[in-house]
Amino acid sequence: MPLYGLYALLFEDHGLSTGSISLLFVLWSLVAFVSEVPSGAWADTVSRRGLLFGSGVLFTATFTIWMIWPTVWGFALGFVLWGISESLKSGTFEALLYDELAALGAEHRYATVSGYANAGEMVCAFVAILSAAPLFGLGGYALVGWLSVALTVANGLLVLTLPSTPRVRDTDDAGGGPVLSRYVSALREGTSEVRTDKVVRRAVLLAAALLAGLAFDEYFGLLAREGGAPTEQVPVLVALTVIGQVVGAATAGRTASMSGRVMGGVVIAGAVLLAAGALAGGVGGFIAIGLGYGAIHNTAIVAEARLQDTMSGRTRATVTSVVGLTSEVMSVGVFAWFAVGSAWIPLSALVVSTVLPLLVVGITAVRWLPDRGSSAAS
Q1: What's the confidence (pLDDT) of residue 60?
Q2: pTM score > 0.70 for this model?
Q3: 140-163 in b/e burial notation, b at 16+ Cβ within 10 A?
Q4: Distances from the Cα of 332 to the Cα of 81, 238, 274, 328, angstroms
Q5: How many C-beta atoms surround the C-beta of residue 170 within 10 A?
Q6: Which helix (H) or strand (E) holds 159?
């Protein structure tokens, strides 16, 4: 959506400060936090394709509200709907993808296919963000926003083309029992697996921490403006960061067999690039940010693929949703820090302080990344 490249500026140009914008991001994460695991359990109980379609409907509603009610309350309502939309999708899509591949005997290709899917998403984002600059020049926020709404409708319709293979629980249990009973069972079983299996628990925490390390891209537009870029040039700089993410995601299949030691090195290198790019600013700085983001994105996909291989699979969406829940908790901390720190500290310094914990994640990855091919008993 072209609006991805400008929506933080949309908020600012409607009177919101960086602190207020950060509070909206906190609200967004809190809503996703509350609904994340419950929605994952629903994805282990009812149609995953149906949940993804519902997610698309809420996604469209988010940006429609922003266009017709561009106030702090309209933006807040949109983020509430977006948070629910994200929770319906998080865990659901990954579980659907893994189970569809498993039905074909091709689960070993999960990292490759997931990487291509993420790369495709980033290519679309790259084209959309770049298009925001000329579209803004032609019709301002209205043209950028309403075209984005139209694209979300197309996104929702594409969901209807997805297959829907029966889940592992359906195969084992023949789908018996009332829906609510099966929902409670999936919720209990999935969360129990995370609590009791140390390897799964560590994989969940590692994947969540890496995903949380990608949380501050919401500030890239503001970071570019702080560096002196006019509104028309901001999408171009933000698009540079997307190129790195495309490469990082597309190569996940090639790096899927990396060891924990290698992943640790990649994460630390990515953190250094992110910090250096934020301080440097300009085209060179945003290229460095793109390289760092690509490295972290790649490791996040690999970590999530190892988690998929490690878990039992009976409540795949629920366990995967715990990753989303944990990453949302961490993201709330990031947004809260930006909300408080922005009153005294430049955005570039805030970004640097935010990526420092990734150094710890890199060290932790050496021991916490599951070996490839490790699998819990199904």
Answers
A1: 96
A2: yes
A3: ebebbbbbbbebbeebbeebeeee
A4: 17, 22, 20, 6
A5: 15
A6: helix 110-159
